[in-house]
Specification:
Elements (H helix, E strand, L loop, with lengths): L3 E2 L13 E5 L3 H12 L3 E6 L6 H8 L4 E3 H7 L2 E4 L3 H12 L8 E4 L3 H4 L10 E7 L3 H9 L6 E7 L5 H11 L2 H4 L1 E3 L2 H16 L1 H16 L4 H10 L1 H19 L2 H14 L2 H16 L1 H11 L3 H11 L2 H9 L8
Helix pairs in contact: 1-6, 3-4, 9-10, 9-14, 10-11, 11-17
Amino acid sequence: MATIYYEKDADLSAIKGKTIAVIGYGSQGHAHAKNLRDSGINVIIGHRGGANSKTYQAAKEAGFEVLSVADATKRADILMILVPDTIQKDLFENEIKPNLRPGMSLMWAHGFNIHFKCVDPPKDVDVFMIAPKGPGHLVRDEFERGAGVPCLVAIYQDATGDALKKALAYGLGIGGARAGIIETTFQEETETDLFGEQTVLCGGSAALIKAGFEVLMEAGYQPEIAYFEVMHELKLIVDLYYRGGLKFMNYSVSDTAEYGGLTVGPKIVTDQAKNAMREQLKRIQSGEFAKEWLGEYQSGGKNFQRLRDADAAHPVEKVGAELRKMMPWIK
């Protein structure tokens, strides 16, 4: 069983009196910064864009001091790096690394750049992770209502001997310790996160939706009806999974739906599909996917854009855009 830490295991004094620089003010960045400030921690923002950017203006309007990443690094005791994976290496080499001091702490919310060795931190700084298992807006909303989003904690490098104390204190400061902070490693978090995104959450679910829509269309059914059956109603099922797992979902749907799902599901996601998942996991573990993705980004992302455009042009997207106009409440 995993080791799970709660509020009783964390002491905010481990980071009280220190300056935390949140690098990036997007979905996660704004939530971390606001939650930490509300917990009594001194927070500054390190921003890589110009003063006219939306995130810069949002941070200023929220009352934060906004500095360049280099200047924020010079001022900070702890850096939480929350910019996209693809830009972290250059940002680290050019603005962060030259300004690090022994005993500082480097934090991540996703282990990609550390695990795949895109970033090589000096040996005299702590390197650890607090990764909320939810989007930034949920991290903020749950904190404001007195709850929290579960987090993962991992220690990659403990130069000071206090890395875990500081990590748990940070997790407490953003509300994660209220729900529970699960111990992991940078390797485990990175590889499982990529696997989940690619095979189930984003890649697998989207491919299943498109395939189901196409089969119904080929059979002559109305596209609007097909959309509701394979896309719109998926949220209802996912919400049941979210609340109580597979058992609660089966309990909540009709016996007809449960029996059909139990008997037909394994015919759709077959051993062939599982073997494809296993192959993709190997590509993730070996670093092949990371190399491919970083190479795609560095070459200008033409293939990425082609894939985006193809997805946007799929009939299920066009039908859905029209049907969602009938449902203003979903916004």
